[in-house]
Amino acid sequence: MRYVLGLDLGTSSLKGLLVNQAGEVVYTTSSDYPLIHPQSGYSEQNPHEWYRAAVEVMANIVETVPDAKEGLEAISFSGQMHSLVLLDENDAVLRNAILWNDVRTTAQCEKIKETLGEELISITQNKALEGFTLPKILWVKEHEPAIFEKARQFLLPKDYLGFRLTGSKQMEYSDAAGTLLLDLKNKQWSESVLAAFDLPKTICPTLVESSDKIGTLSEELMKEFGFTQTINVYAGGADNASAALGAGIISPDIGMASIGTSGVFLAYEEAGKEYQGDLHYFYHVLRDSFYSMGVTLAAGHSLSWFKNTFAPNEDFDALLKDIGTIPAGSEGLLFMPYISGERTPYTDSKIRGSFLGMDQGHTRDHFARAVLEGITFSLKDSQKLMEERAGKNFRKIVSVGGGAKNPDWLQMQADIFDATIVTLTTEQGPGMGAVMLAAMGQGWFDSVEELVATFVKEAKTYEPVKEQVEAYEHIYAIYRDGYGATKGISHALQK
């Protein structure tokens, strides 16, 4: 049997996905590692833990699937974006990695805005936010000058793991696009951005494509696990880009709604689209392709908050079992899902959530349905931006994550997005994208379309209902007024 292995380097664990040539998931395993919080707002990790986890995952695979010793052909990666790994002249790690969800860099973001203004968006197609890599580099430069002085190169997490497995250092474009250092139009590190902050170009690694071979698995690991043939290692991709490939998002008329703790509405983009920083805009894992992405900060988190607060002893199935009996619009009840602030389209950390239109006739089922509607409306904000700015017309949207687990919510998505909603038989997200990049690198398929047809299998389909679509168009128009109506009150309450 011929296999490829995807290593998905997440925030709390590394997941391994072993898949055969028919696109069948043969085995999955994972290894956890700790988060480090030195103080409030800080989020760090020891990069050596990622390598330890990868070794553990490979050990589990060869123990459980013995013929992987002979059949494993290639490895690729998916990884958390934006995080910072600093290496010295001997390629030793200088400090813990600063992760994507670390928010210590507000002052550095302000400095970037003051220094570059709109030029930053023109070059990188993205705004300066705490999550990106450049603010983290500037923070180390300012607060840990002795460490920065020793720094010779930075990598992102999966690229560091690739280095440990092969001895080769590089970064592929989908992750590089999330650093605020990449000139997206010219597909190179931006000399203007580097010069603005007195950063040497040598600190940036060599750029490669996501499906490029970066080396072969080290002799040490080959011997340790008894692999009998050379195992090629491919660059891989950023987690959202890999998840997009894993969901089959390879054309402009297919979108993806991903509802986890946060929510993402993502679409494939061809070159030339610009959103002036109102949406995230990054390289896809497919050569010379892009994707746009809007973010809802509290998507699944809004639902978890509601359950934990008002139904702590029930599971989600019990909480949502009767929402189908409540009509569209929850009979005048509207939820603004801003309990953690909001990203797209407002980038407002001070806005807060609210229930609007409450009356004595509303039951818990009304509130539960309103929460789901509010989350979906927030994702629709990103869909509308894409439609208005780029003329998109989504014929199909792939729903993944928590939003793909409840049939009433899936039908709600079809009606609110006014598009066919599909779910997948196997939802492996970024890990599947990593696997597919390895298969692509190995030349298993003649085209991306053939690859997707083999690896991405649709499960259920939900079609929009005309009457429900019309009802939600009216309610969504009211929802869009909710941010402006509550902004002043929310900001005042934060003082």
Described by the principal axes of the CA atoms, the overall outline is globular
* C-alpha-based Rg, rounded: 23 Å
What's the level 1 CATH class of the largest domain?
A: Alpha Beta
N-to-C span: 62 Å
Percent strand = 15-25%
User: Could you estimate the helical fraction of the residues in percent?
Assistant: 25-40%
Outline the low-pLDDT stretches.
none
Helical element count?
A: 18
Mind describing the biggest β-sheet?
Answer: 7 strands, mixed
Q: What CATH architecture of the largest domain would you give?
A: 2-Layer Sandwich
Average predicted confidence as pLDDT: 94
CATH level 3 topology of the largest domain: Nucleotidyltransferase, domain 5
CATH superfamily of the largest domain: ATPase, nucleotide binding domain
Number of beta strands: 24
How many domain regions? 2
Classification by helices and strands: alpha/beta
Structure in words:
It is a single chain. The protein has 495 residues and is of the alpha/beta class. It has 2 domains: 3-235, 2-Layer Sandwich (Nucleotidyltransferase, domain 5), CATH 3.30.420; 240-495, 2-Layer Sandwich (Nucleotidyltransferase, domain 5). Helix content is 39%, strand content 21%. The chain contains 18 helices and 24 strands. Strands 1, 2, 3, 5, 13, 14 and 15 form a 7-stranded mixed β-sheet that branches. It has a 7-stranded mixed β-sheet with strand order 18-19-17-16-22-23-24. A two-stranded antiparallel sheet has the order 4-7. The chain is globular and about 70 Å long. The model has no long low-confidence stretch (mean pLDDT 94).
